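Reading group handout, session on sequence-to-structure problems. Before we discuss, look at one worked example. The prompt was deliberately terse, the way you'd type it at a terminal:

> structure DNA replication factor Cdt1 C-terminal domain-containing protein

The input record follows.
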Amino acid sequence: MSQQAAFSSIDHVSLESHPFMKRYVFIEIIKYHHAIDMILSLHYSSHTSLITAHALFERVAPLIQKRTKISALQSVLMVDPNCYKLVSPTNVTDYSPCYVALFDPINQFNQSLESRKLRFISSINNWITTHQEIGYLKIPSITQIIEKHSANTSKSSSPSKVLKPRLTLKNDSSKFQFKSRDEKTQSSKSNGLSLLERIKLKEQQSKQQKQQETPEAQREDYLQGKLESIYNIIYQINGEQNKPTSFTLTGLTQIVKDSLHYPTHEEDIQECLELLAKRLNHAIIITTRGGLSVVKVMKLDREGDLESLKSNKTVHAFYTACK
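And the output record:
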């Protein structure tokens, strides 16, 4: 099967549905995984030196025919943290040089490419079914991934310690403590629930409230989480002069996509731009003539605009709750 056919077949894999995120989001992650596997297979079959994440994605981009960033690797490791091993030779920060290594010997890795692809699709489906309540990808930082991999390595390489049980006196110190009237009042307010139980109860109530929202409201909540980041990109593009500027909708969409730190599909970005135009109709205007959509950015007031976006969210939540 040719490389192009292999990637085209991914478009037709069977995936679970997610209430907030669309299918193409997960298809892209599967393609990232497949492309990274192919490049790592080629590299480590003929090299013993580690490959940097930057060099890896320079070679991945032609395979999937789009620009890629390290956030693509982060999204793959979000689904399956044991796909690849990230290492850094210096003190770990998000700006440290990052290398991508394999957990398995290269011969074993090469023999398991097809099974790895199937196993990753299974992991994607598992992630979808266990994260139905969230509307975004919870991508771990590079620092978190490297520290986790380093911790796993040190645990596996060091002998486990056998801890002897420690004898403790059984007298409960609470018997000798005076409980004030305020403490008793606070205890009655919490209905006798522990802090952990109250947190779980609050999460359950929040989940029930989300389930009562219409699909349209859920979709808008999902887009709401991206509005500030996209607004900030537009604000930076507009520059210090902050004068009215015009962009084609497709052109601005591509600029925003290249500037975001996490993978976002063009359709989501365009919906966010339309939502910004709806919420900030004095500052961002979208017009369509002859099939061409143009975004006109007027003079922006960042502090006031962001406050307006937050207040709009509050009004939206209020009306949703009243339905």
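Points for discussion. First: Strands lie at 51-52, 85-87, 99-101, 245-248, 284-289, 292-297. Second: Residues 94 and 142 are 6 Å apart (CA to CA).
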